[in-house]
Input
Amino acid sequence: MFGSLARVVSRVAVGHVERQATLRSFSSSVSSLNRLEPWASKCESLTATGTRRIMEEDHDQFREVCRKFFENEVKPYHEQWEEDGQVSHEVWKQAGELGLLGVTTPEEFGGMGCDIRYAAVLWEEQGYSGLVGPGFAMHSDIVMPYIVNYGTEEQKERLLPKLLTGESIGALAMTEPAAGSDFSAIKTVATKQDGGYSISGSKVFITNGIMADVVIVCAKTDAGKGAHGVTLFIVEGDMDGFTRGKNLKKMGMKAQDTAELFFDNCFVPDANILGEVDKGFYQVMQELPQERLLIADMALSNAEGVFEYTRSYLHERQAFGGPLIKLQTIRHKLAELKTELAVGRAFMDRCIELHAEKKCDTATASMAKYWLTDLQGKVTDACVQLHGGWGYMWEYPVCRAHVDGRVQRIYGGSNEIMKELIARDL
Output
């Protein structure tokens, strides 16, 4: 089905003009689009393509490809993946074949060198779909940028091509049983040896942890420096002393593998140090704004998607002699939700613009993450209520969205931590 599209976005080293022509050629494989700017809130659907001022036609065409991918290659299998506790390796390779992984990776390393708006399109389409199993954002927009920004040429040339194709899957191992947002509390240690370091310790709640082939691990190399004595290491799946614990059973996001990781004198050669020794804290601080923005955008887009299928449900559900949408209390609740979603989208789009210009600071990204994940919870809770008893049934997307979204206020730095980061600028 996607063979022609895969050829369109194949990772050939092309110049800037050729790449733009390649992206424009999506139009031969997707529906014709009409720009409906400026406000999604004035269109028939908050998820309509062609409604966003910050997006251009090429982004809209890429959006159509992403939307078809989630509809045709993820949705039919997602229920089984929830039972399995992880997605298939095949869906990763399909995403890689279509050019959906690491879209911002520079062309010299096999990527398409796209701007961050293309990554945002994929975040949003996954959010709209509610199909949370594939951990693409962690892989493409958290792990891969660390390698691009801090890796050696050898690391980039060796690791990025397989991450781009989905042959390898990436994870970030930061959180520990007794250390979450408090970076200084990390207990995993890396002891210097001839030719490398021996890592001992454990990590928990690691997204993509079961399937990952490339894991960026935060470990203390100088315990006396606290958070400023942390170094990032690239641990590869076949290294001695590296083992995975159980696939953790979670409240939601059941199709996304989340693991405990263990390091028992795991030897990592000097060639696998990512960046400089003892500079891990600074590297993480540089990358966190993007992580928080993608969480915010996925939260908002999921809330927008939930709003839309709840609106459709209320048009169809009959009670008191007509569709529920005819009841004033129902309409007013939807009006409240739509207003808040429209306000949230305006702020989120401005954050994406700022980030594309490398101007989105920590406080602004923290505002987006805190406000929009809270809004996601508010919207999904209201939409469960609007569905009545059916909203409590797992077969209904609104039920899954409500429990899947609960973690958004926790990971990437809890929302309480976000408020503290914002308060530092007051």
Q: What stands out?
A: The longest strand covers residues 196-207. The first helix runs from residue 3 to 8.
